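This part of the workshop introduces the protein records we will be handling. The structure tokens are whole numbers drawn from a learned vocabulary of backbone shapes. The record below serves as our worked example for the rest of this section.

===
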Amino acid sequence: MKRRMDKKKTPEKKTEPKGARGGKREGSGRPALSEEASGRDSQVSVSLTPHYVAGLDTRRGNKSRSAYLRDLLVEDLKKAGLE
């Protein structure tokens, strides 16, 4: 006698109220740039030899490479009168 196998019943999914998960959360996401840098509208890519990267890393302190280079460039451009 063949035994008839019933299809397994899947338990009903519990639905959570809308908005219970996901969405915007306080403190989530990428940190904002400084006010001066937040209005930027283009990105620049720079290639450096390992020698210059090592020098950059020893001088930048606790700043990111991008922040350090941005500050150097802005300072130099201000000195040149190109604000």
User: Anything to note?
Assistant: Residues 46 and 69 are 10 Å apart (CA to CA).
